[in-house]
Amino acid sequence: MSDLVVGEDGLARPPWASTDPLLRAYYDTEWGMPVRDERGLFERLSLEAFQSGLSWATILRKRPAFRAAFDDFDPERVARYGDADVARLMADAGIVRNARKVAATITNARATLDLRADGGLPELVWSHQPETTPVPTSQAEVPTTSPQSVALAGSLRARGFAFVGPTTMHALMEAVGVVDTHLVGSHRRGTSGLWREDGSRA
């Protein structure tokens, strides 16, 4: 348990989730829990893309502003965005104002709608769930990519998605429960109901 920090509440967490109250709450209640709805996955896909090159804490603090700016990540509404919406978003200091990432979010909303004819975004993402999940005992053992994240990135790119590289998709898979990379000994290990502590499917 060398990489785990035991808090005043007696619960063991990784260092990144042990001090900042916002990150701790996210870790304790949301990260790694299954997300299977289209809007929820589109939001997390979008936020992971915006996080590229930045800290997750930055994105998490801006999430309320992101939700307001992107119509609560309703893909049908975002898919209709035009030049005026892009200008509005690029003037919004509450979000990350990156033209390529804004454009990718709109592109991905349209691709999400197109996917409905072929099973939908949740089906595609969850079809890449592996048979086993990592069993890391230290942060150094937590992978940043996997064969499944490489495959998911390729599947999404083939369907018109942008900003969906293997590392970003691995982070998405961790965040929405497709894999469980909680450290062994963490109070969150295995709590998604999908994975046992030994890495096998529940």
UniProtKB/TrEMBL annotation:
InterPro entries assigned to the protein according to its UniProt record, in alphabetical order: Adenine_glyco, DNA-3mA_glycosylase, DNA_glycosylase
Binding residues annotated for Zn(2+), in chain numbering: H182
Hydrolase in keyword set: no
Keyword Transmembrane in record: no
GO molecular function, one term: DNA-3-methyladenine glycosylase activity
Pfam families assigned to the protein according to its UniProt record, in alphabetical order: Adenine_glyco
Alphabetically ordered keywords of this record: Metal-binding, Zinc
Biological processes, Gene Ontology terms: base-excision repair
Superkingdom as given in the UniProt entry: Bacteria
PANTHER family reported for this sequence: DNA-3-METHYLADENINE GLYCOSYLASE 1 (PTHR30037), DNA-3-METHYLADENINE GLYCOSYLASE I (PTHR30037:SF4)
Protein name: 3-methyladenine DNA glycosylase
Origin species: Janibacter melonis
